[in-house]
Request: fold
Amino acid sequence: MAICNTQFRVDPLQNATHRRVLVALTMSLAVTFGATVPFGATSPATAAGVKCQPSVKVTNKKGASIKVLRFLYKVGGSTVYTEGLVNKVLTPNETETWSSQTLNNAATGVVVTSTAVEYKDDTGRGYGSPHTSAWFPHSFTCAANHNYIHEIQ
Reply:
């Protein structure tokens, strides 16, 4: 009985072609099924799955009322995301808390790197143009038990 010692040769060019075909097929399937981010990357809202719902607390430290318009936040980069705060009017030294404010572009467990509040000053003849409070940096992950606190001065 003879032992057959057959070696299989793999053509490197053929392997590279197969890899390219598999990558192209994977990409087209991903597009077909709605993938919108590169493989291995996730958007801030989907990184941990569930949209974060922290509390947003705003205190008016000005001598006149303000109208609170929106909560602004950044997740990593320089893109500013906004969530409406229903045009709530705060008198001097009044504080309002928006519990469970849904952040549509930040998932629970993602670091919201900085936050601010957009508001309008009471001019005595209505409310003026929108202003943005100072941006406040953060380093903790977003979660339902967190408070983003802003004092408008």
